[in-house]
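Hi everyone, sorry if this is the wrong subforum. Our group has a chain we'd like a structural model of before ordering constructs, and none of us has done structure prediction before. Sequence below.
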Amino acid sequence: MAWSTRELAELAGTTLRAVRHYHQVGLLAEPERRSNGYKQYGVTHLVRLLRIKRLVDLGLTLPQIADLGELDDHPAEALRTLDADLAATIDRLQRARADLCETLDRAAPTDLPPELAPVAGVDLSEADRSFVAVLGRVIGPQRRQAWADMLQDLPDDPVAAEFDDLPAEADEATRHAVTERMVPYVRALRAQHPDLGEPLSDAPRDTHFAARTVGEALRDLYNPAQLDVLRRTEALLRADRATPSG
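Answer:
Right subforum, don't worry. Here is the predicted structure as tokens:
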């Protein structure tokens, strides 16, 4: 029995282009030719092509099939490796689908991790919202949840709007006044949400990387006067903690 290239492809359920490509990469031996120059394929070519197609359909790459050599009738080890890879891929896709469903259900923005998704409904400035998105990438899940709880329970204090509206050229008196009002506001937030703790303490990467990322985000998002107020506020809060009570 001898088949043409087209007939061989049809029998194997593949395409002429695939058969020619398998010849080019050395997976399928070239057949003999008839006197008229046309190729004539036999049973060995069909069986080989069926094996190649089956392995490709299972997910092996052509280089992987080539590495199998004569073992491709039942490459148990390669198939077990492929099965493990597929299992890992399925697990990743299932987690991605669960995350997608949660994002759709909450109408959550795609720049926030799931724990911080509810923050999308909170009235934050554009700078604050962007800072939370960056912070969510460098802190661990426990701190992300603590931040989400805090941001959803923000008190209605005019100092927050004062800080948002503080111009870059604000004078010393204005900066000092805003700082004086920021200190009790931030102190109350931290007392109400003690789980905030040190925000970078459970950073998934090293704390130096996390601190550098947060610092760069602050410098990009807030103007010099706002950054000055933040530094002063933190310094006063540290001084409070360092002062013995009683």
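For your construct planning: DSSP finds eleven helices and two strands in the chain. The chain has a mean pLDDT of 86.
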